[in-house]
Amino acid sequence: MTQAEIKLCSLLLQEHFGEIVEKIGTYLIRTGTQPLRMIVSDTGLLLDQVKKALCVLIQHNLVTYQLQKRGFVEYEAQCKRVLRILRYPRYIYTAKTLYNDTGELIVEELLLNGKMTMSAVVRKVADRLTETMEDGKTMDYADVSNTFVRLADTHFVQRCPLVPETPENPDAPPPPAPTLVINEKDMYVVPRLNLVGKGKRRRSCDEEENGEHKAKKQKQDGESSEPPPDDGIYWQVNIDRFHQHFRDQGIVSAVANRMDQTSSEIVRTMLRMSEVTTSSNAPYTQPLSSNEIFRSLPAGYNIAKQVLDQYLTLLADDPLEFVGKSGDSGGGMYTVSILWGKPPAPAHFQALSRFHPLLYFPLPLRFGSRCARIFRLLLRKKHLEQKQVEDFAMIPAKEAKDMLYKMLSENFVSLQEIPKTPDHAPSRTFYLYTVNVLSSARMLLHRCYKSVANLMERRQFETKENKRLLEKSQRVEAILASMQATGAEDAQLQEIEEMITAPERQQLENLKRNVNK
């Protein structure tokens, strides 16, 4: 765990959950697994505050607990899970792309609340969608429920582990912490709920003053006292499934760049057929026959069975190994290689990393376009001596040497020694420059974490420096909104707007631009 990651985790926790939760989370990230007594002692917070903070972190899967043999419970922070907060917008946008606005709000509610029952999610999403609709239109609970079922069927949401039902024994003391379990077969089973109703709009201030709403509110409170039909069955977002979707998109894009659009559509079909049956950490998809793939191709994609077989043979024979052949039954059994970062990594993983633009995008900005040319040359040729780099890149010897040493000092390239003799004498040793793709990717990821942390700190500083001006702007906007609601004249509104001077307005615009940046 690097200092940049710890700093970024601390800033993310503070921004989303407040100072107390941030203090507990950062302490656990720095110190590792700790019992409750040590957390209270070392942080100096009240026991009640620590318990509530841990509840929040556990609710959002940012902290896990484990019952030790001695009988006490230890808590451990999940740093990688905290960093996933940065990807929340991408998860939400993906849900919107696949399942429209309803899917977007379902995923957003689950991410905001950590864990929720299906009935609570459906009601909340239906109310939010009704708010955005025209007057007289409402969102039916059944429509939201259907989208939720589709998300569960494709494994984008999953059930949370439950406390197993055990026979009650009044003599036995309760365990210090419950052990949560779940059957893998039940993880995506949606309970049968008869959710009847429509989304409700928020009442305006005038309606709140009327006496009718009191009786309705009491009636609603009476109804809500009964437990919902799915009480105790909680759901959460399956982040691994979203990562699997992103990975599949990367593979399809790489196939399109390597071959053509038809090949990428065939691979997309294979991935779609096995997206639910294949584990997110499996090295390859489930074997699919040529006949199954042909039947599952999109309706508007008219290619003959013979052409499909030729494309599959071409993909299987390609040295990058995007597709592998595992048998001859059913016209041929084929799989898609999806092993990432685990030895031995397939050639297409190296290809995806090598030709990803983010890998060499920083080079022209930091070292110039010639360094980027050398870097791409090393990616293509893998191992080169300094003289070969000069010749292939067509760069003078002095400049090439300087650029290689610069990239070597920044860990963009590495130097490999191959001695001719056991004494490693420099005159009898080959010095080959190469690019360690995984090492470079990790280094760039570390720099990204550091940059995000610096940007968040800068945003906090800008907001703190202009706190007085922001409060004044909010007060003026609130006054304007209330006067517009009461039907004030334009002259009065203009007079209120002039409370913020031209220099202050310019300062506000600069602040908003910097914060957005």
TrEMBL record:
Gene Ontology CC annotations of this record: RNA polymerase III complex
Stretches assigned to the DNA-directed RNA polymerase III subunit RPC3 winged-helix domain: 366-435
Domain RNA polymerase III Rpc82 C -terminal: 146-336
One GO-annotated biological process of the protein: DNA-templated transcription
Record-annotated RNA polymerase III subunit RPC82-related helix-turn-helix domain positions: 7-65
Keyword Cell membrane: no
Region (Disordered): 161-181, 199-232
Keyword Phosphoprotein: no
One Gene Ontology molecular-function label: single-stranded DNA binding
Primary location class: nucleus
Keywords for this protein: DNA-directed RNA polymerase, Nucleus, Transcription
Domain of life, per lineage: Eukaryota
Protein's cellular compartments: Nucleus
Matching InterPro entries: POLR3C_WHD, RNA_pol_III_RPC82-rel_HTH, RNA_pol_III_Rpc82_C, RPC3, WH-like_DNA-bd_sf
PANTHER family referenced in this protein's UniProt entry, alphabetically: DNA-DIRECTED RNA POLYMERASE III SUBUNIT RPC3 (PTHR12949:SF0), RNA POLYMERASE III DNA DIRECTED -RELATED (PTHR12949)
Family statement drawn from the similarity comment of this UniProt entry: Belongs to the eukaryotic RPC3/POLR3C RNA polymerase subunit family.
Subunit structure: Component of the RNA polymerase III (Pol III) complex consisting of 17 subunits.
Protein purpose: DNA-dependent RNA polymerase catalyzes the transcription of DNA into RNA using the four ribonucleoside triphosphates as substrates. Specific core component of RNA polymerase III which synthesizes small RNAs, such as 5S rRNA and tRNAs.
Name this protein carries in UniProt: DNA-directed RNA polymerase III subunit RPC3
Organism, as annotated: Mesembrinibis cayennensis
Lineage: Eukaryota, Metazoa, Chordata, Craniata, Vertebrata
